[in-house]
Design brief:
Length: about 270
């Protein structure tokens, strides 16, 4: 093939890296694609790293050693995170989102890929210290958010079902009590989905009392997995004490007034313990 110019290499490598967050690419991989020496690829990586850092678009890490390489880690700045969460809070404060019974309609936002990619990256950057190797969520509305978080971590997503399926094979099922309505429900998880000793991060769209999250914690433990953290997009201010501890909520829903159509929801940047 014709010699690839530096600008072409930099653009193509950036595309490779940004499209696969946290995925480790060897220098040999890029060297073979572009027909360039590893020293030249290293220079390109420096250019990409400095440019992305200058504009606050993420971090390019270099891992040394025979099994090393280069990877992109999407780390949104605090200002960018707060700006996005304010926009989400504003969208969720629209009066026509109130559903009878005091619920909040969120599905349109949860199923908007560009939004959930960014929220998934926020969860990744805020919960990277938990070092998970699986993301866990419950069907169905939380799946897009959990999937984008799994993408940002470059790890698999496991979905808990409300009831078992024949196609899942042998499954573990538990009954759990919802924290808000105190109803007994069932959730199940295929035994093959999580290996024993797996480090699991729970991601969900909404938390009121924490009953569903507590059910996922108990279910993961039944198959020998270890819960390393919990992240939710929206949690309610009341009850203050949830059924799970040490969770990260990006937005807090303080109040919904069905009569005045006023929704009080605000961003929060600290984990609840």
């Amino acid at each position: 093939m014709d010699k690839v110019r530096k600008m072409e290499r930099v653009v193509a490598m950036t595309k490779f890296l940004v499209d696969s967050p946290h995925h480790l690419f060897s220098l040999s991989y890029f060297s073979e694609i572009f027909g360039a020496a590893k020293s030249t690829i290293c220079e390109d990586v420096i250019t990409i790293r400095e440019t992305l850092a200058e504009f606050g678009l993420g971090v390019v890490e270099t891992v040394a050693g025979a099994a090393g390489g280069v990877r992109f880690v999407p780390v949104p700045s605090r200002d960018a995170t707060l700006e996005l969460l304010k926009k989400l809070a504003s969208r969720l404060s629209e009066p026509d989102r109130i559903i009878p019974g005091g619920f909040l309609y969120m599905s349109d936002l949860l199923f908007t890929p560009t939004l959930m990619v960014k929220v998934g990256e926020i969860f990744m950057s805020r919960l990277a210290h938990t070092i998970p190797d699986h993301i866990l969520t419950v069907e169905t509305k939380g799946i897009p958010l959990a999937f984008m978080t799994a993408r940002a971590f470059d790890i698999p997503l496991v979905t808990v079902r409300r009831g078992s399926r024949v196609t899942d094979g042998t499954a573990v099922s538990i009954n759990y009590v919802t924290g808000s309505s105190r109803r007994i429900q069932t959730m199940s998880l295929p035994r093959r989905a999580l290996p024993a000793g797996a480090r699991v991060l729970i991601i969900d769209d909404f938390m009121k009392a924490g009953g569903t999250a507590k059910g996922m914690v108990d279910l993961a433990r039944e198959v020998g997995a270890y819960i390393v953290g919990t992240g939710v997009l929206v949690s309610t201010a009341e009850p203050v004490h949830k059924l799970v501890d040490d969770y990260l909520s990006l937005l807090i829903l303080h109040d919904i007034d069905e009569h005045t159509k006023v929704i009080d929801i605000r961003p929060v940047l600290e984990a609840k313990k």
